[in-house]
Write a structure and sequence with these properties.
3-stranded mixed beta sheet, 16 helices
Length: 347
């Protein structure tokens, strides 16, 4: 028999568990950045993703006339796809149709195109997310040119590609970590697989566009690289204010929790070891490059922890200097960000 007292206790315990679960969910999916800007209605745009991947497979064979149609339809995007993404002959080469047909008829590539067509038969939500992100992007950077967006399959060569006038979204590298062909791709290591989920698709594209905006590092010190990547992450987050930090950073939920928990310790490590102004290529590579973890840090650390620290430093700088626009941030020197952020390992 359940008494009123025991029933109340059960309700209390259920409530506590739900609150704890909610707290865990928030911690692993937290977002951080300036408060989201309320976009004016005239700044909101609608983006349509052009399906180059589907258009390539509309006919059984691509002859010269069909190639011409694709060139006229997609322009610079088709050129970027042919010459860069899949590294075939020149877009104006008379033999292009033969090379492209050979690529498309490869059994693995043919199956890949079919799998992508099924998985991405409905891209409405992706277009909605991309429309929001690009609305912010063009609002913050009004001098940038509008780009066309098309989907592609590069045979696992590129996640995305950017040309002068177009952004190519690589659908074949966003099929989910368990996709059957990924184990056959030599460079796709186990730590990369979690980032091949569809939820990374738009964020990866926006990061590439922002990367193209942020000037190369002037110096060759670790700080220069940290701040440059920090700017990319910070601006991307402002273009996608609801984006979970784990997706922004390319970390698992556990790695994201580790990074935030270890933020101050990471900073103290950089200072104690005199690494911040190091120009040693091996040091920079160890702390900035991708991998299963950051070498030299405790077990459980995500790779690229110096990038995370650079992002938190930029975040701190922008919080303390609210008059600075994202356009101005692009040109702000790392030394200024370090000094005016007063960053000490906690944003």
């Amino acid at each position: 028999m359940v008494t009123a007292a025991s029933g109340n206790k059960r309700i209390l315990w259920v409530s506590i568990v739900l609150l704890l679960l909610g707290g865990v969910w928030w911690y692993f999916n937290q977002t951080s950045g300036r408060s989201a800007v309320e976009l004016p209605e005239d700044a909101r745009i609608t983006v349509k993703i052009e399906r180059l991947d589907l258009d390539l497979k509309k006919t059984d064979s691509l002859d010269a006339s069909r190639i011409q149609e694709l060139k006229l339809t997609y322009g610079e995007i088709f050129k970027a796809y042919v010459e860069n993404a899949v590294a075939l002959t020149g877009v104006n080469d008379p033999g292009l149709h033969e090379e492209l047909n050979a690529f498309l008829r490869d059994p693995y590539i043919d199956t890949l195109f079919r799998d992508v067509a099924i998985r991405f038969s409905n891209i409405h939500e992706i277009e909605k997310e991309l429309s929001s992100a690009l609305s912010y992007y063009y609002y913050f950077f009004p001098k940038t040119s509008r780009v066309r967006v098309a989907s592609m399959i590069s045979g696992f060569q590129y996640k995305h590609a950017l040309s002068d006038s177009g952004l190519l979204l690589g659908l074949d590298l966003h099929l989910g970590r368990d996709y059957r062909f990924y184990p056959k791709v030599s460079y796709l290591t186990s730590y990369m697989l979690p980032r091949l989920e569809t939820r990374f698709l738009v964020a990866d594209g926006i990061k590439l566009m922002v990367d193209d905006l942020v000037p190369p590092a002037d110096g060759n010190q670790l700080l220069d690289e940290m701040v440059r990547v920090g700017k990319i992450l910070y601006i991307t987050k402002n273009c996608m204010p609801d984006l979970a930090d784990s997706i922004l950073l390319g970390f698992t939920s556990q790695q994201t929790a580790w990074a935030f928990d270890g933020e101050r310790n990471m900073w103290e490590y950089l200072i104690d070891q005199n690494l911040l102004f190091s120009s040693d290529v091996k040091v920079i590579s160890r702390l900035m490059n991708d991998g299963p973890f950051t070498a030299g840090l405790p077990e459980g650390s995500p790779a690229r922890m110096a990038s995370f620290t650079g992002w938190r430093m930029v975040h701190r700088y922008m919080d303390k200097n609210k008059e600075v626009s994202l356009e101005e941030l692009l040109e702000t020197p790392p030394s200024t960000i370090l000094k005016k952020s007063a960053y000490k390992g906690k944003s």
